[in-house]
């Protein structure tokens, strides 16, 4: 049979052979390399090497470092370097007792307690740096007393149901206006598990809407929080506790003072900050409710300076002063931040120009008013202006032994043993932050004393916080504090001393006690 010859196979195109495969591979490599070269690199937002919990946020003047610090010290502000170094050193000592105990000694368990607060500031921020500094100093004193720091004689430690677990203090910066609370709270929630869990959050900044939002989220996450200087009556959340009195209690303490004084026969005038601020809004309401018979419709507003969102021109007090002159009012109820009080005093000092030369008493309720009022002591004396402040603390009275709570003396001794000056107490923030951390420690140790566990969880600590009464009352520096499930987080039995500037009260009566 004859077969027709077939044409030979033609050569394959170059791109189907090994040469094509190599070219394709080379092309892909070049494309990938080009993309890598031109693709924008992810920005490193970490604040410092070795501190992974801290990140830069914001732009320009608003840029700040927020997040968590517990191991490596990070100086948020030069004024904080000394106290942050001391906290970091104590944290390291606590960890070392667990990881590498001294020869012949058992490992000492520890848990974490956070201080959530602004650690940066500005001219209009929620907390000025001086109060941030004293807040950390007070927190550290409580940590040292709980841990039995080497600088403290053994007799001055707390001795709460033994000495464990020890306390590692986690500093949580939520930003100068508390605007970055959300990512920081998320970081805190991640610490609640593991061998050394976070058991409570303390501090909580000041009484503004951001604090309420942070407290609500912590409650949703089942984490108990203990506010140090929160007094806004409406600032409540299921797992939020406060060691301070409320604004309603401030007003009641002032009412008792006013009723027993020569001021009772004078008419009053209300001057209030009009911003959306929990503290000033609820203090204004408390004054209206408690002193309606003194105030009536006599009132004037102003715009305060704190907060990120301007609400008008701040500190315009002249209209209020003119109205005070017109009514010849001698008792002024001031519902504003203590940061604006000095400027209000300066405005009142001009009242003689409109025919008011009688003495004036400014009544308010705040933790640090006496520190702010001291800055205008000369004006107060020269212009017959007196400030009467219902406060959470009274360092001058208590240091001299006048109506001092039982827990104040050991706090004061520890403060001095740790080489702090008495002036640390002047604004009240050191005392109140000490008491917030102390309350967390007290509840934690109460749990471990009953369960013999090395580390309780947040649920156990929350349960115990509601049982801090009767035999478990907290011997805080600012009073014998009690909490239960019906107090809405507010302390029972908290004393509210009344402080007077520029001349202190000669014989102050026993302080009003929160029911």
UniProtKB/TrEMBL annotation:
Residues 494-515 are annotated as: Disordered. Keywords: Membrane, Transmembrane, Transmembrane helix. The chain crosses the membrane at residues 18-39. Gene3D superfamilies: 3.40.50.2300. The keyword Transmembrane helix applies. This is Amino acid ABC transporter substrate-binding protein.
């Amino acid at each position: 049979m004859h077969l027709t010859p077939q044409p030979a196979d033609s050569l394959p195109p170059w791109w189907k052979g090994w040469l094509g495969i190599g070219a394709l591979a080379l092309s892909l490599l070049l494309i990938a390399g080009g993309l890598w070269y031109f693709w924008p690199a992810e920005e490193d937002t970490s604040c410092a090497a070795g501190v992974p919990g801290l990140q830069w946020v914001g732009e320009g003047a608003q840029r700040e470092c927020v997040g968590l610090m517990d191991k490596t010290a990070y100086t948020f502000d030069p004024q904080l370097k000394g106290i942050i170094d001391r906290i970091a050193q104590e944290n390291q000592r606590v960890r070392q007792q667990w990881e590498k105990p001294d020869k012949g000694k058992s490992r000492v368990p520890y848990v974490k307690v956070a201080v959530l607060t602004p650690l940066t500031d500005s001219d209009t921020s929620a907390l000025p740096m001086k109060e941030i500094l004293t807040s950390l100093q007070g927190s550290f004193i409580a940590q040292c007393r709980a841990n039995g720091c080497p600088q403290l004689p053994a007799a001055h430690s707390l001795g709460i149901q033994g000495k464990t677990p020890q306390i590692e203090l986690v500093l949580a910066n939520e930003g100068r206006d508390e605007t970055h609370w959300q990512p920081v709270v998320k970081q805190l929630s991640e610490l609640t598990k593991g061998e050394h869990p976070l058991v409570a959050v303390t501090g909580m900044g000041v009484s503004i809407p951001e604090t309420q939002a942070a407290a609500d989220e912590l409650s949703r996450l089942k984490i108990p929080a203990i506010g140090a200087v929160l007094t806004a009556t409406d600032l409540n959340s299921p797992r939020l506790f406060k060691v301070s009195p409320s604004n309603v209690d401030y007003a009641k303490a002032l009412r008792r003072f006013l009723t027993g004084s020569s001021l009772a026969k004078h008419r009053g005038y209300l001057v209030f900050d009009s911003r959306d601020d929990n503290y000033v809004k609820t203090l204004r309401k408390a004054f209206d409710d408690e002193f309606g018979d003194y105030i009536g419709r006599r009132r004037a507003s102003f715009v305060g300076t704190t907060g990120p969102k301007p609400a008008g021109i701040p500190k315009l007090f002249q209209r209020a002063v003119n109205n005070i002159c017109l009514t010849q009012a001698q008792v002024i109820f001031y519902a504003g931040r203590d940061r604006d009080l000095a400027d209000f005093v300066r405005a009142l000092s001009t009242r003689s120009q409109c025919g008011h030369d009688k003495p004036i008493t400014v009544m308010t309720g705040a933790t640090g008013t006496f520190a702010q009022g001291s800055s205008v002591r000369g004006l107060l004396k020269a212009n017959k202006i007196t400030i009467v402040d219902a406060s959470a603390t009274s360092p001058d009275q208590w240091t001299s032994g006048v109506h001092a709570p039982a827990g104040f003396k050991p706090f004061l001794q520890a403060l001095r043993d740790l080489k702090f000056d008495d002036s640390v107490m002047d604004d009240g923030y050191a005392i109140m932050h000490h008491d917030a951390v102390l309350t967390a420690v007290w509840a934690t140790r109460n749990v471990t004393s009953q369960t013999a566990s090395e580390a309780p969880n947040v649920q156990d600590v929350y349960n115990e916080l509601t049982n801090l009464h009767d035999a478990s009352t907290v011997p805080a520096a600012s009073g014998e504090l009690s909490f239960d499930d019906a107090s809405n987080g507010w302390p029972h039995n908290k004393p509210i001393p009344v402080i007077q500037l520029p001349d202190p009260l000669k014989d102050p009566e026993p302080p009003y006690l929160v029911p």
